[in-house]
Amino acid sequence: MFVTDFRRDFYDVIQTERVLLFVALDVDALCACKILQALFQCDHVQYTLVPVSGWQELETSFLEHKEQFHYFVLINCGANVDLLDVLQPEEDKIFFICDTHRPVNVVNVYNDTQIKLLIKQDDDLDIPAYDDIFRDDEEEEDEEKSDNESEGSEPSEKRTRFEEDVIEQTMKRRQRREWEARRKEILFDYEQYEYHGTSSAMVMFDLAWVMSKDLNDMLWWAIIGLTDQWIQDKITQMKYVTDIGILQRHVSRHNHRNEDDENSLSIDCMRIAFEYDLRLALYQHWSLYDSLCNTCYTSARLRLWSVQGQKRLQEFLADMGLPLKQVKQKFQAMDVSLKENLQEILEESANKFGMKDMRVQTFSIHFGFKNKFLASDVVFATTSLLESIEKDTSGTDNFIRALDSLSRSNLAQLYQGLELAKKQLRAIHQTVASCICTNLVISQGPFLYCYLMEGTPDVKLFSKPASLGLLSRYLLQSFICSTKNKRCKLLPLVMAAPMSVEHGTIIMVGIPPETESSDKKNFFGRAFEKAAESTSSRTLHNHFDMSVCVLWVPRPGGGGIVFLLKKSPLQVPALLLDLLTVHSWLSPSPRLCLQSCSLPQASAGTGPRGAHQPAVFGGELPLLGPWLPPSHPQALPDPPAPAMGFDWLLHMFTWTCSGPVADTGAAPRRDIWGIRGHVPTHSYMSSHLAGAK
Questions:
Q1: pLDDT in tens, 264-293
Q2: More confidently predicted of 662 and 485
């Protein structure tokens, strides 16, 4: 049920109770949490804070604490699934959900007792009508009752009445089948795309504003939450500009000072200002040269991974009249005369090089006269702290450090996050350059895909969903700027990277196409689920973003993804197919351990369902053990023809987007992302990969 009055139906209800906060691991959720913590501190509300990284942690934490609490607040998690079905709570438990994930599950929408949605209804929600989704139990009971009566009314003198009842029941069943088919279609149209709504931090700030308890700190956290959505490409440019306008009015209200007030300000005061600033990452805490090289927008359009791109960068700097000595030192140390009109000069030169959106609307904050940060600076720093891969630090430790970095009393933590963010941006730039120069981005029918092999520099950094998402968007924009194929410019991207060496998992993320008219709706969440179900692959859809999933790839000795044969990067999908193929037909029994066996070189053949399968590499492949003689009753059966794997899973995405594809020729597909054409069949892709060997 949607809460209309946040103060009366939410805050006044929990104000005298003990509350459990579940907070997702993203910057927007952290900012919403900080605002709610400040409100709780004002009113002395008792609460317990629990960070959760996915559905498994949410369920485990709920089971651990459910006896102690009756009220639960979920921030950026819980809205897009049937929460009562996942957690199985008692009837006296109440859940308040403030979540940006869309679409909202219809069961949560129409549950009036236990689910309270803290979501702005001015968002484009398009909730299906109740009668289109749910049927009353009385109707079903009437149908069953009439069925039983008709079974007992068999006398010959009532045959006419019986025939009328049969016709009536037949019509009811037909109407029910039509209703169920229509319901299935409505739910598919409603749930097929994943997107994001208004920032949770902005929702919480609106609550503070209604209660007249909004502070400048809360406003800054709301700004950071919105900026995080924009940097993570979760909302459209129009939505970002609209919300910026809303926050700008609050900034003017909180930071209005006359001349007398300016002279009486303390040296450590906090001031927020609206600005049209440069679209360069961390440039005020870095050198201008490094920022230009490691910002996605400038690096992609100048093609800095190539020699020609480096020459274009030199020409760009020369056009601005900036000496290399100046741009390569820290921005704070540059000559004041160069910094005075830097934004106007840089924007004018950027227009000549095809970068027409060099300045964006944003906010900055001043802590006294020394420390100045842009909202994007704080987002990069907090994200880096949240997904830090430093040794001897847990996810909870990273959460606490990231939460502390949002407080102005802990600027040392924020500066530490800025240094980590610089390392992250450098790693992303180098990885993108490597992927493009070695042709790791491959066109797979209606989408692009890229896999980072184990052993790639900084690959551990991209085992986190937000970091992998930033890399994916950076890579997609760079690939679009580098390719001459116009069709590829309209395609989405599937990105995969090793996640855990010990457990043998890879993390996958799907990115929608990078177009100016993109509505930021992501189809890959449902595509991943459908493909995993169709291929019986061992996957985990644990992340709150449905477009992120985890695949298991076993190896001998229980390690991670190991390429048992030395293959070129272009053959990675086929090799992953071999590794996953062996794994796919084996049930994950706890009594079994990993062994290896040798498979002969096999040719392409026909697997289950008549689908054409790629050839299997020769060499050692992982199998489950322990080894048992063939006569043993618990011995494993002979493995069937290889059918499952990463490449096959990618083929199933094609099938999901286009319907079944014939074994030969090309099949027309539906227009999913505004692209029309033909999909290469799996036979063609298999022979292409086999030829690459």
A1: 455 557 889 999 999 999 999 999 999 999
A2: 485
DSSP state string for 425-462: HHHHHHHHHHHHHTT--EEETTEEEEEPPTT-TTGGGG
Query: In 10 A of CB 524, how many CB atoms?
Result: 27
Question: Cα dihedral sign for 488, 492, 494, 495?
Answer: positive
Residue 587 tokens read as 């049930």
Q: What amino acid occupies position 614?
A: P
| Strands in 208-312 per DSSP E | 270-278
Average pLDDT, the chain: 77
Tokens found for residue 580: 């996953």
Query: Residue 643 region, left (φ>0) first, then alpha (ψ -120 to 50), else beta?
Result: alpha
Asked if residue 115 lies in contact with residue 2, where contact means CB atoms within 8 angstroms, the answer is no
Alpha-carbon distance of 100 to 202, in angstroms, equals: 11
Q: Name the token pair of 498.
A: 């090793």
Separation of alpha carbons 397 and 388, rounded Å: 10
Across-strand partners of 50?
22
**pLDDT for position 362:** 94
Tokens standing for residue 643:
């059918």
Torsion of CA 340, 342, 348, 349, to 10 degrees: 140
518 compared with 190, residue with greater pLDDT: 190
pTM of the model: 0.78
The predicted-structure confidence for 58-111, as pLDDT tens digits, reads as follows: 999 999 998 999 999 999 999 999 999 999 999 999 999 999 999 999 999 998
Residue 582 has pLDDT above 50, yes or no: no
Q: Please name the residue that has the structure tokens 């692209």.
A: 675
> How far is Cα 134 from Cα 522, in angstroms, rounded to an integer?
27
At 602, give phi and psi (nearest 5°). -115, 150
Q: What is the DSSP letter of 569?
A: G
